[in-house]
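Protocol check, entry for the methods section draft. Step 1: assemble the input record (protein sequence plus ligand SMILES). Step 2: submit for complex structure prediction. Step 3: store the structure tokens unaltered in the notebook. Ligand used here: pyridoxal-5'-phosphate. Step 1 record:
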Amino acid sequence: MAFIPYGRQSIDEEDIRAVNEVLRSDYLTQGPTVPAFETAVKEHCGATHAVAVHSATSALHIACLALGVAKDDVVWTTPITFVASANCALYCGAQIDFVDIDPATLNMNVPALKQKLESAVRTGAKLPKVVIPVHMCGQSCDMAGIHALAQQYGFRIIEDASHAIGGRYRNGPVGDCRYSDIAIFSFHPVKIITTGEGGMALTNDAELAEKMALLRSHGITREEAQMSGTSDGPWYYQQIVLGFNYRMTDLQAALGISQIRHMRDWVSRRNALAARYQEELEGHALVLPTTISDAYSAWHLYIVQLKDKSRRKEVFTGLREDGIGVNVHYMPVHLQPFYQKLGFRAGQFPAAETYYQGAISIPLYASLTNADQDRVVACLLQRCQ
Ligand SMILES: *Cc1c(COP(=O)(O)O)cnc(C)c1O
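Step 3, stored output:
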């Protein structure tokens, strides 16, 4: 029987035609297609500015830089995320620290964030310059709660919404930045829509958008208003900050424009599949995902937790033998050897560590058929009996 992966892209003839068209055009990069994709995403997500880049990782990096993250600053994120959410602070020479998760939603625990802020004030420890909440599995964090604390304690917010494009929070799309300074998306093939590799930073702040656009392309500007002195002529450009080459290509953007047509339907299919899992898996030796009424999840991942954590490896290995592409998201970042070398220790974020021991991500993607899903359910229930 065919292997069922935990996630995969959907590509149709229209996607292929859109990429081919760019291949036959004058611009493979720095042409008109990247701005068109930026417009499509910001229109779907309700933000006023969008900066496309070649990955969410580079988007996180330039978002931190645009907010002024530098040496001697501290950034806080969650331990249950992909390493990139933490690495971005280190790229800027800043320090990283973590706030434990809410064991129900797997998102940053807002009361724990509040406690950590209060304790920093009490002990004279440094307050975070930026907090990076991650919308785990596609379900928004308690952004209103985090935003209220940002007002009180003076930090900025980058939403790592890599899992969450197409999701909603309190009657607005994820990415509208109502409760944050910048929101980040990933277009890696396992995410909701793909450009092969790709990412985007959204913001409602023109100045932040301008900074990120500069940082994406070597720190070079052709706009006279940004230059010092006067232009030497029409060929002239100036490098005004130290930037990178983080540009998205027009090939990638063409795929993105074609993909975003399906976003609403795909997210709705993911919701239907998640509801089926919820129904079929209830009442067994599993802890199922918790949904909150404030959010409409994009359902990037469907994660079950074994009630008997000691059986995780056996169940996981068994499912792989059954041809089910299970995975684990994520090993807590602070337990990675690199982060251990920075001084983090097991026991520091107990909710994240406990969650990790029982977690298994099971297949979820828009083109997963009901029949394949039934096979996943049957294998899982048999393996975890
Ligand atoms: C996938 C992912 C990233 C990194 O995305 P890339 O586009 O691969 O760089 C960052 N954060 C989270 C939470 C992710 O899932």
